[in-house]
Design brief:
Two copies of one chain form a homodimer.
Chain A (H helix, E strand, L loop, with lengths): L11 H13 L3 E6 L2 E4 L1 H17 L6 E2 L5 E3 H6 L2 H4 L6 E4 L4 H12 L9 E7 L7 H4 L2 E2 L5 E10 L12 E11 L1 H21 L5 E4 L6 H13 L3 E6 L8 E8 L3 H6 L1 E2 L7 E8 H12 L8 H7 L6
């Protein structure tokens, strides 16, 4: 589960200058809500090219592509017990189920600036809190001996409105999910950690790996987080974006043991629950790390970085 | 506003056979919720190629690309008075604002299969109901003499769960928004209508244009719909997908007069409110129309259609 990218306590002035610079150059477009931005074509091109590069360096994974909308079934959120750990981050989709008279009251309430949300009821869907969630039910059944590897690019939602530019409410993760025997999965995670460090290094990013934990909610959450750190279930790769002292997580690696496999019935050939792991790049944070490190003008980026992202067509 | 693609009353057996065929071949992936599917790589490739083709045939528009997340600010939905017309389709995002004790109650309620949604409160964001909405505030100001044209590919939400495979809750629209003087905008819409008919025809789709209306809510809505038809503010292009008798809207064209321009302050050089129009392709419906018309195996599609979507690289 890529349930979070670690918070980076920002150097406020540096963060604000970076945000203002991105907006002034049309890399980001304002949407009037903290943590919600449009993306201009230059910003988007960097994401597109980095995404292609990830596909290129991961060819030996022979990953199967899948594509999911930015929503999952409410039942899936319940099944993984998401609310036990991250109630504050969830995005539940509500709509209107009333008649004509109630619709008039709803529209009136909205025009008067009132809380019209409370006149709605929950639908069958919620915003995707982690790109990999819809993959697990789809993997249900017995795996082939070599296991499976799946990749996807997915919109993810986190309810954490913030003026801090790397902390978005809605962003994309390029993820890989590996299912198989524990040793296959752990070896894969270790290989990906090195591969990701190499990839980010080749783009001139001062990337460093670190043991990490998810932002579990409340007092009980602290215990879960320290257990997660102790068992090294989660790693992150960090790059300075809005603060040199507190670098930003741009990539995360999670080992779930048999947590998801046992819930969804993903089995090894021996009939036992398989193990799963996932890794993912926070695409907007990768782009921001590049703009922070090399400047706001991709045309001025170091030639080696440009050649890696936009390889010249051989003559 | 592409607020809806007209409902197509389905031939039930034909719709069900088509849905089952798409799922059996992994073109769509089940997600356990009506109107919510994953997309397999073959389905996605068709969308990607069609999207590239749209860019190619629209080059003379010199459209500016923008990219928005699947969410917009709640204030934007209020500002365009969405709830007056489509309360039943809205997707309001709610989250948890309580303390540790309330979080325990929330998790308990979810585990007991209860309505945990009512323990949440509305956030600052809602799901994007029409891809073009975030474009209008961004266009605020005085337009250049030739006006502006903007294009985007956006995830759109409609709360209309249905077993009918073309009626998705979450789907993508490739849209174009044109802002300028009324005659510029109307001429552009007419040109795009012919261009879209030509494009779909070149893909072997039996496409037909028709005057249309949005699915306004309630009794008052019928009046709005008939006024919209009378003034020919909305056109759709229809292709049979799940029913020959009731073809499916795959493309829609809307003329807004100065509705959005006056709300958001989009002005012509003379200082008057500009006019706006938008057009959009329902990408999943286009793909489904192709699979329905030419069969489930793109390798077996007519050579002319294949060459149009996957042009061979010149030797």
């Amino acid at each position: 589960m890529v349930a979070s990218l670690a918070p980076a306590a920002a150097d406020h002035a540096e963060a604000e200058a970076f945000r203002a610079g991105m907006l002034a150059r049309g890399l980001l477009l304002p949407m009037g809500v903290p943590g919600l931005f449009g993306r201009g074509p230059v910003f988007e091109d960097v994401i597109e090219r980095f995404n292609a590069l990830v596909s290129e360096v991961s060819r030996e994974d022979h990953a199967e592509w899948v594509h999911f909308p930015p929503l999952i079934g409410r039942h899936l959120l319940e099944r993984v017990n998401y609310l036990d750990s991250f109630p504050h981050l969830c995005g539940s989709v509500h709509s209107f189920f009333g008649d004509t008279l109630q619709a008039l009251a709803l529209a009136e309430r909205a025009k008067a600036g009132g809380n019209w949300g409370e006149l709605l009821g929950p639908t069958d869907v919620v915003l995707t809190p982690a790109g990999c969630y819809p993959v697990y039910p789809w993997l249900a059944g017995t795996l082939p001996p070599q296991g499976r590897c799946v990749t996807l690019l997915s919109w993810v939602f986190r309810h954490e409105p913030s003026a801090e530019p790397t902390r978005l409410q809605s962003f994309r993760m390029r993820e890989f999910v590996r299912a198989g025997r524990a040793e296959q999965v752990l070896e894969w995670r270790e290989r990906w950690l090195q591969r990701a460090l190499g990839l980010l290094g080749s783009l001139g990013l001062p990337a460093e790996a670190s043991v990490a934990s998810d932002p579990f909610f409340g007092r009980g959450g602290r215990l879960l987080a320290s257990e997660q750190r102790e068992q090294k279930l989660k790693f992150e790769i960090l790059v300075p974006v809005i603060s040199q002292r507190e670098p930003t997580a741009v990539c995360s690696f999670n080992y779930h043991r048999d947590h998801f496999a046992s819930i969804f019935g993903i089995r090894s050939t021996d009939g036992e629950s398989a193990s799963t792991s996932c890794m993912g790049f926070g695409m907007e944070r990768i782009a921001m790390a590049l703009f922070k490190t090399h400047g706001f003008e991709p045309a001025q980026w170091p030639p080696a970085v440009r050649e890696r992202l936009w390889p010249s067509v051989p003559a």
